[in-house]
Amino acid sequence: MTVSEHHSSRPQAEGDGAAEAPVFTARKNGQEQTVSEELADWMRTGWADTESRDPQPIEQAAYTAKRREALSARFPGERLVVPAGNLKTRSNDTEYPFRPSCDYVYLSGDQSDDGCLVLEPRSGGGHDATVYLRPRSNRDNGEFWLDGHGELWSGRRHSLAESAQRLGLQAHDVRRLPEVLSEAPEVPVRILRGHDASLEEVVGGLRAQSADSAETAAERDEELAVALHDQRLVKDEWEVAQLQSAVDATVLGFGDVAEALPQARATSERYIEGTFFLRARVEGNDVGYGTIAASGPNSTTLHWMRNDGPVREGELLLLDAGVETTTLYTADVTRTLPVSGRFTPLQRRVYDLVYAAQEAAIAALAPGRPFTEYHRVAQRTLAEGLVEWGLLEGPVDRVVELGLQRRYTLHGTGHMLGLDVHDCAKARTETHLYGDLRPGMVLTVEPGLYFQPDDLTVPEELRGIGVRIEDDVLVTSEGNRVLSAGLPRTADDVEAWLAQRLP
Ligand code: GLY
Ligand code: MN
Ligand code: MN
Questions:
Q1: Is the peptide bond before 395 cis (omega within 30 degrees of 0)?
Q2: Is 395 exposed, middle or buried (0-12, 13-18, 19+ CB in 10 A)?
Q3: CATH architecture of 55-232
Q4: According to the model, what pLDDT value does residue 29 have?
Q5: Domain 237-500 - what CATH class?
Q6: Rounded to the nearest whole angstrom, what is the distance from the C-alpha of residue 363 to the centroid of ligand 1?
Q7: Residue boundaries of the structural domains of the chain
Q8: Is 332's C-beta closer than 6 angstroms to any atom of ligand 1?
Q9: Which residue has the higher pLDDT, 478 or 148?
Q10: Nearest ligand 1 atom to alpha carbon 422
């Protein structure tokens, strides 16, 4: 947003008899603001110099530099534009909390709205990286305090010099970016779409001068998006540490929830959601996705996020929640807990089968193994149990071939995890869904069984039971490491863990 201002000596409305008074006018959120020249002058002065002369580089600066190098090698001679995105209006002058695009964070370590990273090809090969940012608010033109996005309202920003130091990047004023891009329109360009419509328009304008059709341009941009997700499939050691820290905070949040079960019983699932959220905000940035706090029959609704149901003695509570770190990496963990502290024999039976499927799936995670395999073994284990219970008619091979168990298993066994909860979704199928596991990949392992309350194909006592166990697992060079091992997984361990926390 820009601040338009007028200094004027404007007569008051004719006939009101007032003397002419100097006024300062600015626009804030579309509304004209008029303040006296005296106040405007006064607000320009009397501020201390707060420039930090020696800001510390962010921890991940060395890693973001390597990531940019890898991307640079993939697109020689091309200009790459990776926007952070803009604030989104919720209503009037209120915005949603801002979350920058993951690829921008991955490559820059920065989280500023309106930011943009540009990799500019060098003539001798490689790229120069520059981050374009909003500079500090101008105090002379009133932007600082009269614009709703000025620093007086939204907090101090880093100066461009500070950002350059912190991020290990050249930093320039983002308002100059359209002009900078226009200076060399002949350089082939790719932009990461879906985050900044005005920058896409600028790039589109430049492309209008090239031979690229709109379709070719869209394909080239998609190649950039795919390349970034491909690259993000394997986490570097700093990212693994972030994910571990997201999981550690999540473990604490699950402990908080266990202790809060009596209050949840007296209120609703919202108490669970709120309890976890408190931990997420204190330890990290936020929750990494909408918390699923599903008690009783709600546990059979996969994306139960209304969280407004009761939490009753004797029911199972399925809690699927993850803390997102301040660096924006998220955990994704599920535990299914007996609200009263002990599983009924039937609940335990369902739980044990899901646990067996999870154990089999975790054992299938090792470098060189196909990504599809852990899903296959989990589904097979669940199908075997369902046939044994008489819920499905065997043989198991037929059940699995036709996918009949899916009536009760419903979803895949897991996904990549990182800056996004469902990370790297655009990665090429040959490196991801039909690829082999590599050390540094982090995945969720989350089999489940869900018997809908109105499913007449299962005995009545099973209806309304939903169980999922979800852990976050790192593929290592030797096999794998369960990052969320701080939480109990077996039914016995869950009961013992609850016993320590329930009053
Ligand atoms: N929390 C969403 C998922 O488990 O994929
Ligand atoms: Mn989950
Ligand atoms: Mn998940």
A1: yes
A2: exposed
A3: 3-Layer(aba) Sandwich (3.40)
A4: 60
A5: alpha beta
A6: 21
A7: 55-232, 237-500
A8: yes
A9: 478
A10: 5
